[in-house]
Specification:
Layout lengths: L1 E6 L4 H12 L4 E7 L4 H11 L3 E4 L2 H13 L6 E4 H10 L5 E4 L7 H9 L3 E4 L2 H18 L3 E3 L2 H9 L8 E8 L17 H4 L9 H9 L1 H14 L6 E5 L5 E7 L4 E5 L5 H9 L29 H12 L2 H18 L7 H11 L9 H25 L8
Parallel strand pairs: 1-2, 1-5, 2-3, 3-4, 5-6, 6-7, 8-9
Antiparallel strand pairs: 8-10, 10-11
Helix pairs in contact: 2-3, 4-5, 5-6, 6-10, 6-13, 10-12, 12-13, 12-14, 13-14, 13-15, 14-15
Bound molecules: NADP nicotinamide-adenine-dinucleotide phosphate.
The site of NADP nicotinamide-adenine-dinucleotide phosphate has 28 residues, from helix 1 and helix 6.
């Protein structure tokens, strides 16, 4: 029986993980859960799964949850909160495997501490790898424990890499759906609405990653994540647009052979793979091969989607540059979702913040968090400047 800690249990990946756990009651049990602010769902999950510990982001919600669990006769469930609560969930002695699925840099510390505590980690939270991948992978190597990618592209690469040795890899190909604006002329980008940007053509995901998919920043993060997970330079990680999202990614070997992984577009499959690795277990997640008709591929348009270019540049420089990339994106995407800035302002703000950031070597998670806070302040300042500059009559840019 594998006992699972889920960081971000109330999110899209967290809920998919619980569905996998539910499908395999003889293999998996829930050890601990960490949620953000969705009190109703966290309470429902705690009552259903009876974890040892539940964490909420805020003390107020933790108090409310503790009260509800007491009324439900479950006072023995420990309720904690905040970053320390997330770490408690991630490092609990009852947990064998940690699914890291908190969105944003909020998931960083707990993910790192899980690795440091010698847990096997299934990694969905890509922002942790973007901000502190060098430190996390170094610690995982030290602990001799795997970091198993849940992100469908890296999961696909992980599967394809079982077909050869790392020194036989020529490059990896990350596929990108292209997002909802693949065929939208650049001249229309300034008027893109939040609703349009949240309408992803192939995947149903959380709000931030959906906007990141629309700007192709999500693919940029994945390039950085791939470099760090598989120890490859950015020049060996290519992006190819593949609107059907059927091929999840590919590995090209030195002899010219290319291995691709394809399957249904359902995150339960990469989650199941990570939870059961190195085994494969039967599932109902079948791909109807007979229905396959068209698979289209084309290079990404870096001019139309500057976020991808910015991510490659940050990947080359590493250190504080990738921290700034993630922090500025997180702030700019939140501002876009709040209607404070336009779609085109997202890359503009990120580029400004990165240019103002010195690269530099990272020594500790504390330093990463400080640099993250600094980049966030810088991004907030730029958001404010743009919000003030745009009157209701002027278009948000
Ligand atoms: N969804 C996908 O298909 C997919 C695919 C690949 C990678 N990923 C990555 O996986 C991560 C999660 O994505 P998602 O789509 O599942 O996002 P989501 O649906 O927005 O869920 C985010 C989760 O993080 C929790 N959370 C937010 N702030 C928190 C905090 N301060 N402390 C504790 N928990 C906090 C949320 O809690 P509340 O809801 O309770 O506030 C929620 O459980 C992201 O890094 C994303 O890039 C997602």
């Amino acid at each position: 029986m594998k006992r699972i800690a889920i960081l971000g249990s109330t999110g899209s990946i967290g809920c998919s993980t619980l569905r996998v756990v539910e499908s395999y009651p003889d293999r998996f049990a829930v050890a601990t859960l960490a949620a953000g602010s969705n009190l109703e769902l966290a309470c429902e999950q705690a009552i259903r799964w009876r974890p040892q510990v539940v964490s909420m982001a805020a003390e107020r919600d933790a108090d409310a949850l503790a009260l509800r669990l007491k009324v439900a006769g479950l006072a023995e469930i420990e309720v904690v909160w905040g970053p320390k609560g997330n770490v408690r969930v991630a490092t609990h002695p009852e947990a064998d495997f940690v699914v890291s699925a908190i969105v944003g840099v909020a998931g960083l510390e707990a993910t790192y501490e899980a690795v440091r505590a010698g847990k096997s980690v299934g990694l969905a939270n890509k922002e942790a790898m973007v901000a502190a991948g060098e430190l996390i992978t170094a610690e995982a190597r030290k602990q001799g424990k795997p970091l198993l990618p849940i992100d469908s592209e890296h999961n696909a690469v992980h599967q394809c890499l079982r077909g050869g040795r790392m020194d036989e890899v020529e490059r990896i190909w990350l596929t990108a759906s292209g997002g909802p604006f693949l065929n939208t002329p650049q001249s229309d980008f300034a008027s893109i609405t939040v609703e349009q940007a949240l309408n992803h053509p192939t995947w149903k995901m959380g709000r931030r990653i959906t906007i990141d998919s629309a700007t192709l920043m999500n693919k940029g993060f994945e390039v950085i994540e791939a470099c760090r997970l598989f120890n490859l330079p950015p020049s060996k990680v290519e992006v190819v647009v593949h609107p059907q999202s059927t091929i999840h990614s590919m590995v090209e070997f030195v002899d010219g052979s290319i291995l691709a992984q394809f399957s249904v577009t359902d995150m339960r499959l990469p989650i199941l793979y990570a939870l059961t690795y190195p085994e494969r277990v039967p599932s109902e997640l079948r791909f109807p091969v007979g229905d396959l008709r068209h698979l289209d591929f084309c290079p990404p348009d870096m001019a139309k989607f500057p976020c991808l270019r910015l991510a490659y540049e940050a990947a080359e420089q590493g250190g504080a540059k990738t921290i700034a990339l993630n922090a500025a994106d997180e702030v700019a995407v939140a501002a876009f979702l709040d209607g404070k800035i336009g779609f085109n302002a997202i890359p503009a703000i990120i580029e400004d913040v990165i240019s103002a950031t010195e690269a530099g070597k990272l020594e500790s998670i504390q330093q990463v968090l400080e640099l993250d806070a600094e980049a966030r302040r810088s991004a907030q300042h730029r958001v404010q400047q743009r919000s003030v500059a745009s009157s209701p009559k002027r278009e948000l840019v």
